[in-house]
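Forgive a beginner's question, but would it be possible to get any protein sequence you like and the tokens describing how it folds?
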Amino acid sequence: MWPNSRKIHPQILFATWFILSVTILWQPVLAQIDVGVVEVLTPRGIIRNMSQILPRVFLQNFSGVPVETCRVFLEIEEADYSDTVIISLPASVPIVPVEFRPWIATPPDEYEGAAWIVLPGDTNPDNDLLEFEFVVADTGYFFQVESLPPGVNPKKRVKSGGSLVRGYRTLVDQLVDTLIFAFKGNNTRAFLAYNVREMNWQFMESIPYALPPNKQKRVKSGAALCYDGGDTIYALKGNNTLEFWAYSVLANSWLQKTDVPIGAGKKVKGGAGLAFVKEDGKKYVYCLKGNKTNEFYKFDIANGNWITTLRPAPGGTKGFGPGSCIVYDSLNQRIYALQGSTNQLFYYDIKGDSWVGRAGMPFDSDILETEGKKAKDGTAMTIDDSITIYALKGGTQEFWSYNITKDSWYEKDTIPLGLARKKVKGGGALVFVAKSSGTKGRGEGEIYALKGNNTNEMYVFLTEAVPPKKESAINSSTRGDKSEFRILNFERAVSNSSGLAPSTIKIYNAAGRLLKQSLLATDHSEHLRNFGSGIYFLFIEGKGFSRSFKLVITR
């Protein structure tokens, strides 16, 4: 349905030819003009059903020659959406964002689209068109996305040692890509990254073998990953080793760090976990050793040494073996640990160096009508940016949420059996990715899940926002009535945009008409004056920053 693709609609072909023909008659051709579509910002990745989307692309002026008139097209196939924007590209600004009219993303489905330009005199047609794809989905249900690629050995699928962690990578014009890094485990060294926006996998530098005299071992049971929020991912190789590694996202390279302490004599195996923690201005990696031990340490990143004086994890003589896992609650500065087989849950109070027991994961499933199911190998946890821990129960299809505040468990949609007809087992893993824009509150995002069990399947579960205790309200000082401007996370977005000036704010009505555009004011209520009751959509953006919100005004 777009130029240079396998499907060209006759009307689009004629329209493009007509524009080219007419434009050439009145616009002189500039020498060495080269403008291309370099990135489609939205819609990309996974989008919630009925979301208001503002399609945006990046154009780049590669030649440095000013362009007065460039026509930019964007079309979403099977969505009855197309739009055209006419822009100019100054020579001094090589990358220019282009916005199209808003679109309500519905119904749930897989979509394809394309953005392209029509520019007489352009000398490089190869970069004039960029195709993209995305998914519209409902919340509260699992759906399958692209599986991990087979690699050099197709028989080596995700198994014990499979792990996930979220990371970030900065791209053109400070655009930040969200990546999900993964170990395949299964006695391989494979390390991959999934681009959330582009929805595809890429093999990264494999984790190396340890230097002699250590045995050359691969990733297996006990492997774990955590991320420092910057450039470094920390990793345990597991497989009955003490190996501890650091991976640079920017350099795509590994560096071996100081081994995990030998402690009572056991090495890292099933049930191990890692958590990155900022504590009193310092950075640490906490480690649950697994292998049916209660050993619990932290690694001082600045000094490069392990601290072994922490209070050991509880759990009795069973220790923490296969089915055990940990997550870090940054809001309360606690590390939660689920013990395999017993289903017991504890949290470690970082400030007090103490452990506290909490409500254990239920043994029975009302949805599956099963009883007495223990958390076995493949059990995994992740935590959102609010008050909820999510967990897969190994050996089953069960998926649970745990409310930290209420100390209560809730059964969620089961993870599908898939084509392989397999449940969660060794290599099961979870990671939460917060929604980057248009959020209705904390806790809204995507949970990516590996089932392990010798499959490459990956699934996504869309979480819903936790209702705020108090809705943010901005009262008009220019009206005598009790006008209320209700917008979730608007104040947080404004505060997050500081330091990224100049930032702009755009306000659209429900029909997609642009009502106001201006620089972001210090008094953000100023932007909302003189608007009547109704539904509006706000877009705040600056360099490397973009947020969108639904605004309800009642008077």
